[in-house]
Amino acid sequence: MRLSEARLSIVGLGLMGGSLARALQGKVAELIGMDWDPQVVELANELEIFDRASNDLNHTLKTCDLVVLATPVRAILDTLKQIGRNLPAPPRVFDIGSTKVEILQAMDALPKEVDVLGGHPLCGKERMGLSNSDAELYRDKTFVIAPLERTSDEMLDLVDELITAIHARPLTMNAERHDRLVAVTSHLPYLLAVTLISVGMEASATDDAIWDLIASGFIDTSRLAASEVNIMSDILLTNRGEIQKALAGAIHHLQELSKIISSGDADKLFAELTLICSQRASLSITSSETEDGHGNSHQPAG
Fold first, then answer.
1. 109-133, pLDDT tens digit by residue?
2. How confident is the model at residue 295 (pLDDT cuts 50, 70, 90)?
3. What 3-state class would DSSP assign to 34?
4. 67 backbone φψ class: left, alpha, beta (φ>0; ψ -120 to 50)
5. How far apart (Å, rounded) are the C-alpha atoms in residues 269 and 263?
6. Domains observed in the chain
């Protein structure tokens, strides 16, 4: 099947799902939207992003060739557990969740006639919701593809065509490797930002003048702490093992820096910080290339 022939349903009409729909307008046979929130569905119809939009998941799954699950991770997992049982089984299921191992396990439990594929676009914006959706959100961003053994070549070709149509860059990677790497590049930065806010709040309990001394360093570094809590809690709970490893690594490096500072060894501290500074400078990354897939642009999100 070609993308232009497909009736494509997007389940979850937030920033990611809405932006995907905008980028695919006119490129599929029919674009169907579904969200459980009647107000979101009403907005989708007002904006005329979809050929049709509703909060009827059963009808949506019955009448599409490809469904894209664009909700938070645990909602994706809940939907997958119901497909083929309480919900109709569509021919093809694709997701754009921020973690992959648990989602692909749930996909593999679907009826054998359902073609399945996991995905994760590395893009986002600070402002969430359908009203902030953007047809250019995916342009030039990395879009991870995580196939299962059962994924057909036809499904891979269809999704590759979809990624090309939205001007993203496909990168094939297995689920385990994906979750291990994003634990460091996406989930750990969020937790460090949360920690920074917590330390600042503790300090302000004894001296609230601390907030008069806030400058760009604190603002930029702590920005991710303002991420959507329901999305981030889903991500953290579905990638626990890899996040624990990333946290252990961060704690180790903080402890090593603490030892050097405590020793008062200026030469050693200078050498360590110089090494890290040169390592950062050698990285060919920019803020536009390091956005995550859960609605937050990293400097340096499933």
1. 999 999 999 999 999 887 889 999 9
2. very low
3. strand
4. beta
5. 9
6. 3-174 (3.40.50.720), 177-289 (1.10.3660.10)
Residue 166 has pLDDT above 50, yes or no: yes
- Higher-confidence residue of 287 and 252: namely 252
Angle at 109 between CA 108 and CA 115, to 5 degrees: 50
Which residues have a Cβ under 8 Å from the Cβ of 136 and sit 6 or more positions away?
23
Q: How far is CA 266 from CA 38, 247, 259, in A?
A: 61, 27, 12
Half-sphere exposure of 236 (CA within 13 A, CB side): 15
Q: Do residues 63 and 37 lie in contact, with contact meaning Cβ atoms separated by under 8 Å?
A: no
The string over 104-135, giving b where at least 16 C-beta atoms fall within 10 Å of a residue's C-beta and e elsewhere, is: bebbeebeeebbbbbbbbbbbbeebebeebeb
- Omega within 30 of 0 (cis) for the link into 300: yes
Cα(130)–Cα(41) distance, rounded to whole angstroms?
Answer: 10
Q: Are 166 and 229 in contact (CB under 8 A)?
A: no
Strands of the sheet with 142-146, listed across from one edge: 52-54, 30-34, 7-11, 66-69, 92-95, 115-121, 142-146, 169-172
Residue written as tokens 């009448």? 63
